[in-house]
Amino acid sequence: MKGYNYIIVLFWVFALSGCIRDDGSGLDCERTRISFYYYGDVPGQCRFLEKSDNVTLFVYDSDGNLVARRTKSGADLQAHKGVNLNLPDGNYSLVAWTNLTDGTEIHDAEQLSKAVLGSAAYYAGDPIIHHENDRVYFATKKITVVQSQFRDEELLFDQAHIPLHVHVTGAAAPATRATAPIEVDIVNLHPQMGFDGASTSALKSVYRAQLAYDAETGDYVARVNAFRFLNDNDIQLKLSNSGGEICYKTVELADFMNEHAISVEDKDEAEIAIRFRFNNTSVEVAPWEEEDIDPIQK
User: Fold this and answer.
1) What are the angstrom distances between the C-alpha of 212 and each of 128, 165, 166?
2) How far is CA 164 from CA 132, 135, 216, in A?
């Protein structure tokens, strides 16, 4: 009889800890189901899987303390575009980021008010950042959980980066594949973002565009993923010789945007494309037309 009772007790322990649904689709105790969506500037057309290689979800309680962290790979997202959570009754804040790699570090994630992410090169103290930021997308939402009820929540993502496409034409060919005679620095970019999705405005860094030479056209192209910024900004693009001794052209990005009616605040999928053209002894600057942008660079 004692053995029989022991078996019954074990059965209930495993049943309660496993919480297996009758249909085998998951854990019955995971009653909060989060689904991921990204629409960008195309309402009604979800493109989350198209834009996301991975996603990391942070769950904070009502006091802002981290209570759960989940990461899903691209393969996992193909199978299930979301996360199921087992949370006690209460109010929670969800924060999620996509496409994080080793180039991005997360600091102070245990407390929502202090949590930040940013360039690993910035945290390493590099004066010039050579690694572009990840193509991060961001989402946040407050939810209320009642354990006795199933709850379906949609987590909507926004583009948290702005691609800066740089095109240089008329410069000399590189002496070797690894050395270009020119360099382009983007000055005063934000190297860090808070978990509210806003760039840390007090922090500024210099990003060096990784120029790729096209032997067929004789042009250089690069892309830098900048953390989100506003139309009113102090960002500069500086075109110099290799080593920076000679500055050929400095562009105040805000002035360039104003002159060419470019805004990053009226759309989610904002991007800026700029062309430097060497013309005898001067350098001309103009927008780089959308159709000229290499799809691989977008």
Assistant:
1) 18, 12, 10
2) 10, 12, 23
The token pair that represents 32 in the structure block = 């909060």
Q: Phi and psi at residue 229, in whole multiples of 5°? A: -135, 175
Task: Provide block-wise average pLDDT over 10 residues at a time, the chain (298 residues).
Answer: 47 43 49 96 95 98 98 95 95 98 97 97 96 95 93 96 96 86 97 94 93 94 96 97 96 97 96 95 85 42
Q: How many angstroms separate the CA atoms of 139 and 157, rounded?
A: 4
CA 289 to chain centre: 24
* C-alpha neighbours within 13 Å on the C-beta side of residue 244: 8
Question: Quick one: which of 32, 103, 20 has its CA closest to 67?
Answer: 32
For residue 117, give the 3-state DSSP assignment.
strand
Q: Quote the CA–CA distance of 209 and 224 in Å, as a whole number.
A: 6
3-state secondary structure of 295: helix
For position 29, what pLDDT does the model report?
66
Question: At 122, is the secondary structure helix, strand, or coil?
Answer: helix
Cα distance between residue 116 and residue 109, in whole Å: 7
- CA-based end-to-end distance of the chain: 70
In Å, how far from its chain's centre is CA 249? 29
202: which 2 tokens? 């007090």
Query: What is the DSSP code string of 231-250?
Result: SS---EEEEEETTSSSEEEE
